[in-house]
Structures are given as C-alpha cells and as structure tokens.
Specification:
Blueprint (H helix, E strand, L loop, with lengths): L2 H54 L4 H61 L6 H41 L1 H5 L1
Helix pairs in contact: 1-2, 2-3
Length: 175
C-alpha cells in the first residue's frame, strides 16, 4: 500500500513537467508571433515614411495615385505574408501541443493501469478465475484507453491540418 503515494507523487511530477513544457511552448510561440508582428509593423512604417517623402515632392496627380496604389499593394502583400507566417507558427504549435498532450495522456494511462494491476496483485484473491477476470478487464480498459488516445490524437491532427488552408488563404487559391 505504501507504493500508491509514490505513484501519485510520480504522476503529479510528470503532470507538472508536461504543464511546464506546454507553458514553455506557449511562451516560445507567442514570442515568434510577436516578432513577426513587429517586423511587419516596422516594415510598413518604413514604407509609409519613404512613400510620404516621395509623395511630398510630386506634382503630377497620376504619379501620386500610382505611388499610393503601389504602397497599398505592398502593404497588403506584407500583411498577408505576415499572416501566413503566423498561421504556420500556430499550426506547428498546435501539432507540438497535440503530440505532447497525446504522449502525456498515453503515458499517464499506462502508468495508471500498471498501478491498478499492482494493487490487485497485492490483494489476497485466491480464486484464479477472479484474478483472470480482473486481468482481462484491465487489459480491455488499457486497449480502450490507447484507442481513445490514438483517436483523439488523430482528430487533433486532422483539425490542425484542416485549419491550415483556411488560415493561410490557400483554400481560396485552389478553387
């Protein structure tokens, strides 16, 4: 019976480590997104300043329209490129989080099943049929948990892959 607190402590330690990894992933990816946003904003500001200088010396209205049109087009391209880059960062982050969570759930369920098996093995059950029934139940439960973990991981991956074209605008280009 003294083994149970150790199993609980170990499970809590692993859960804390997984939470720290998730937080670290979140911080790193947020930092990347902010860096992209700052780079795009800086570039747009520099372009605006340069175009304002260019526009200040122009007397021909058509040339001014051309410069403004070029500025708008360049700005839109930079904004969309930044949005695509952010979408890629988010997609990679979703995949990393999905993998980490899937691994943690799988590992936790395996450890839980092993702890339950040890608990039942330590009980004074003399009937072989009862022990076999318990073992079969535990094996069925383990298989079910593994299938659920795989299915949820597959569903998360499918969701992540389906969201990429929608966020990057690729689905519109394909039509």
């Amino acid at each position: 019976m003294a083994a149970r607190p150790d199993h609980v402590n170990e499970a809590q330690k692993k859960s804390l480590e997984a939470a720290v990894q998730l937080a670290q992933l979140s911080i790193e990816n947020t930092q990347r997104v902010i860096e992209v946003q700052v780079a795009v904003a800086k570039s747009l500001f520099e372009d605006s300043v340069n175009n304002a200088k260019a526009l200040s010396g122009i007397k021909d209205p058509q040339e001014a329209v051309q410069i403004r049109t070029r500025l708008a087009q360049n700005s839109a391209e930079k904004v969309f490129a930044g949005a695509r880059e952010i979408a890629e960062i988010i997609t990679k982050a979703q995949a990393q989080v999905g993998k980490l969570v899937g691994e943690h759930v799988s590992s936790s369920s395996t450890e839980m099943m092993e702890a339950i098996q040890k608990m039942f093995q330590g009980m004074p059950i003399s009937d072989k049929g009862t022990m076999d029934a318990i073992q079969n139940t535990l094996n069925t439960t383990r298989t079910t948990v593994e299938q659920l973990t795989r299915a949820s991981s597959d569903a998360f991956q499918a969701f992540t892959q389906a969201s990429v074209p929608a966020t990057t605008g690729k689905s519109r280009a394909a039509k």
